[in-house]
Amino acid sequence: MTDPARLAAQLAFLTEADKLKSVLRAGTLADRSRRENSGEHSWHVALFAMVLADQAADGVDIARVIRMLLIHDLVEIDTGDTPIHANDGQSHGSAGLLAQERAAADRLFGLLPSDQAAEFRALWEEFEAAETPDAVFAKSLDRVQPVMQNLASDGGTWVEYAVTRDQLETRVGHRVARGAPGIWAHLAPLLDRWFTSR
Question: If DSSP codes are grouped into helix, strand and coil, which group holds residue 60?
Answer without folding.
Answer: coil
